[in-house]
Amino acid sequence: MTVNAVWSSNDWDPLEEVVLGTAVGFTPPPVDPSLRHFFERPDEAEREKIPSAMLDRVVDEAEEDLRDLTAVLESHGVAVRRPERPVPGQQYSSPNWASVAMHALMPRDCLSVIGDMLIEVPMPMRSRYFEVFPFRDLLREYFDSGARWLSAPKPRLPDSTYIYESNASVVADDEPLFDAANLLRCGYDIFFNVSSTGNRRGATWLQRALGPDFTVHEMSICADHVDTTLHILRPGLLLANASQMKPEMIPSPLQSWKTLWVTDIEDDGFAFDWPRASRWVGMNLLALGPDRVLVPSTQVSLMRQLEQAGVEPVPVRFRHGRSLGGGLHCCSLDIRRRGELTRYF
């Protein structure tokens, strides 16, 4: 098998190289229609006021946890790359709106790897419009090493993008929109969550970009990203959030596989006025391979459940998933996994 600098087609093949984000530069952005749509913020809050000492402490502790995570990954033979550190509070604007860059913490949201292709996705939140830029030096390096590099059309994101329905927030279907964390990769099959962070036009764009060898399956299993709701631990074994899903909501190609239902999760709390992730960020896992996964060290019950299914949990400290809006899976992007691009159905 040819060794590519970039190669990953699922979340469970043996991990060889990963990019971890950085909490440095985290800036609470204006509470505009795009942020309120995603986080359901109250109308009266124009901008969150976080004491600087508290923000500095959370960022420092998050970076400490990422350094510890780096050491754990390297001890398992995984190469770890980090992005350029963004300048805090960078402002930018389009012809129709202005915002502030929030962070460069979650490469899983702004980038996807499918085979040897790096894909920059069209994110619907305005404060994340240029989130991929701190990763651009790495992307150029991977491109020079032979990877394909594709960027989706940059969206306009007018206020009409953000629609509130009776039971959910959705994004208009006027232009392709999705976060990469809306995708569940399974070889030649990609499951695309249509939600507040991804629309059907985005799924159509991805299908055409990948070509006829791939199948993009639309699903609607949760309000936004899939990685606090459904994981493929390995072929034949799923991990699912019982508070979000019922068995019939599992995509039909996966319904014959065994499912570990997580009925409760430890709440790690949050530091700021409001959380950027639910307590279910505790099941946001990063797989080292088909039989070993990194798990937040507070999730004792989840680790026990994984062990009983023959999956070894590796506990790691991760204190601020709810404060900053992402867990182990969100803050990482697997660049290279050792395996073949194949069909599982």
From TrEMBL:
<dbReference type="GO" id="GO:0015067">
    <property type="term" value="F:amidinotransferase activity"/>
</dbReference>
<protein>
    <submittedName>
        <fullName>Glycine amidinotransferase</fullName>
    </submittedName>
</protein>
<feature type="active site">
    <location>
        <position position="225"/>
    </location>
</feature>
<feature type="active site">
    <location>
        <position position="179"/>
    </location>
</feature>
<feature type="active site" description="Amidino-cysteine intermediate">
    <location>
        <position position="330"/>
    </location>
</feature>
<dbReference type="InterPro" id="IPR033195">
    <property type="entry name" value="AmidinoTrfase"/>
</dbReference>
<keyword id="KW-0808">Transferase</keyword>
<comment type="similarity">
    <text>Belongs to the amidinotransferase family.</text>
</comment>
